[in-house]
């Protein structure tokens, strides 16, 4: 009985052990399966997210040397910084992209290239002069004496009808006394008419002859008056002076109209002809505008200024303008010409090239080299490089041009650098590249390079950093040692930045 009891107990324990082992194996397998399934699901989810968020990398580069491309990440061989990736959505599109909020903060404005009908022309300078065609002279027709001179000196302003001089003419007394005697003697009309004709022949004014019938008194004085408002340009007599017939006593130039004499550059001399319109502005007051047409071209080129003079007549009803004033004139042709115009402030001119920043259809900003023509007011004519309707940056373009040059969107080196899309990737040549200089401490020297911890380079917008520069040859700068403070000069080349001069600074080792 006791053995049977032990056998049953052992069998029960064995069954329990087998059950527990089987349960453990099933549970373990289930857990592993669940973990594997969860991992697969996580991998799938991650794969889906990665496919949505991962950006394709085209290459890596050093932002300070953007022309050098690398096929894997790492440390820049040019300076102490990691290489930066360039993504497909950045490198595949032309131009640079600026955040809209940043554009708003920078105050970037856009303008549209538009085609307008404008007249050909050019700017010139001119000066006002008296209109000699309207000058009047005051002359004596008889022999007499200046009894009183009302004008004081030349260049005095006079009004129309103002007295200039009182002239005493003794020869006028006899014919007037003869006329009065015939009148009082009741002479017939024939004798009186003959006496009046004699007085007119002696240049006695008509108002004096008529006054004889009213006053019965002879007059020996006549007042000479200004025929027009203007300036007394000449005054040839003084008080008490004797005058003779035909003598010019004074000359008066009117101010209601003036001549504007425009100095036309010799290069434009053959393009100017009478009838061309002129829009002039007084240099001292931009609100004073005057318009007219060229009246005549004066013969001869000035030997000193090499200019041709064109003359026109301008109105001066308020008499505010006087001779000798400087005017800015724009001479325009008779027929209008269609031109593509952009605001002048949108054009970046360096002397060797002219650039505008164009906004592409995808919102990117691309520097474009253009050919410019004449300035039309506040606009500039574009002869090539743009088409009508393109948007250009009208403010903040210098910042964008600097950013574009830094990213090799547009070559900063000028000279003979090619233009167009291929020029963006073309590194500047060492011969045409400008030189840059700074100071630094030598950190490492190898046969092909030198590493410096250098100061900022403002010309390249570089901060202080540690950077490696190439040597022209292994034997170059053999006297320079590690730890010395040096002044060095370098240029940009296809292999990065190459040293041209390394000079230790006295007492600069540290």
Name the descriptors:
single chain; 510 residues; alpha+beta; conserved putative lor/sdh protein from methanococcus maripaludis s2 fold; OB fold (Dihydrolipoamide Acetyltransferase, E2P); 5 domains; 6-stranded antiparallel barrel; 5-stranded antiparallel beta sheet; 7 helices; 21% helix
Shape: elongated
The CATH superfamily of the largest domain is known as: RNA polymerase II/Efflux pump adaptor protein, barrel-sandwich hybrid domain
Q: Tell me the major beta sheet.
A: 6 strands, antiparallel, barrel
Distance between the termini: 101 Å
CATH architecture annotation of the largest domain:
Beta Barrel
Determine the structural class based on helices, strands and strand pairing: alpha+beta
InterPro entries: 3HB_CusB, Beta-barrel_RND_2, BSH_CusB, CusF_Ec, CusF_sf, CzcB_C, HMBD, MFP_Cation_Efflux
Biased composition (Low complexity): 417-435
Pfam family, one: 3HB_CusB
GO cellular component, one term: membrane
């Amino acid at each position: 009985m006791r053995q049977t009891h032990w056998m049953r107990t052992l069998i029960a324990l064995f069954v329990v052990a087998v059950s527990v082992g089987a349960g453990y194996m099933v549970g373990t397998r289930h857990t592993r399966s669940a973990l594997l399934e969860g991992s697969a699901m996580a991998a799938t989810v991650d794969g889906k997210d990665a496919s949505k968020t991962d950006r394709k990398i085209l290459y890596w580069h050093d932002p300070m040397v953007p022309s050098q491309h690398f096929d894997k990440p790492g440390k820049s061989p040019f300076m102490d910084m990691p290489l930066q990736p360039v993504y497909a959505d950045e490198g595949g599109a032309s131009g640079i992209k600026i955040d809209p909020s940043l554009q708003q903060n920078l105050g970037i404005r856009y303008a549209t290239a538009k085609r307008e009908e404008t007249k050909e022309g050019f700017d010139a300078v001119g000066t006002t002069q008296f209109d000699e065609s309207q000058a009047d002279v005051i002359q004596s027709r008889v022999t007499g004496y200046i009894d009183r001179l009302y004008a004081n000196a030349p260049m005095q302003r006079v009004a129309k009808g103002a007295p200039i001089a009182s002239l005493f003419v003794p020869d006028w007394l006899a014919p007037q006394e003869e006329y009065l005697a015939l009148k009082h003697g009741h002479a017939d009309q024939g004798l009186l008419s003959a006496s009046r004709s004699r007085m007119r022949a002696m240049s006695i004014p008509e108002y004096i002859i008529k006054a004889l019938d009213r006053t019965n008194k002879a007059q020996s004085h006549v007042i000479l008056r200004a025929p027009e408002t203007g300036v007394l340009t000449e005054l040839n007599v003084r008080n008490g002076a004797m005058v003779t017939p035909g003598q010019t006593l004074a000359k008066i130039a009117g101010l209601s109209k003036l001549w504007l004499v425009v100095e036309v550059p010799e290069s434009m001399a053959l393009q100017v002809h009478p009838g061309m319109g002129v829009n002039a502005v007084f240099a001292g007051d931009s609100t004073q505008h005057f318009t007219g047409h060229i009246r005549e071209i004066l013969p001869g080129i000035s030997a000193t200024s090499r200019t041709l003079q064109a003359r026109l007549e301008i109105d001066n009803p308020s008499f505010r303008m006087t001779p000798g004033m400087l005017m800015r004139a724009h001479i325009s042709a008779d027929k209008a010409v269609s031109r593509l115009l952009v605001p002048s402030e949108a054009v970046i001119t360096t002397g060797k090239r002219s650039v505008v920043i164009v906004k592409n259809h995808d919102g990117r900003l691309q520097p474009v080299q253009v050919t410019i023509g004449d300035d039309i007011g506040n606009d500039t004519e574009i002869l090539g490089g743009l088409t009508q309707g393109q948007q250009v940056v009208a403010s903040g373009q210098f910042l964008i041009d600097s950013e574009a040059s830094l990213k090799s969107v547009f070559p900063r080196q000028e000279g003979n650098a090619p233009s167009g899309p291929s020029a963006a990737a073309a590194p500047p040549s060492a011969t045409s590249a400008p030189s840059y200089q700074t100071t630094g401490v030598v950190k490492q020297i190898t046969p092909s390079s030198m590493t410096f911890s250098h100061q900022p380079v403002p010309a390249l917008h570089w901060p202080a950093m540690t950077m490696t520069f190439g040597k022209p040859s292994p034997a170059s700068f053999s006297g320079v040692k590690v730890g010395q403070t040096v002044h060095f000069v370098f240029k940009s080349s296809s292999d990065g930045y190459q040293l041209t001069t390394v000079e230790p600074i006295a007492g600069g080792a540290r």
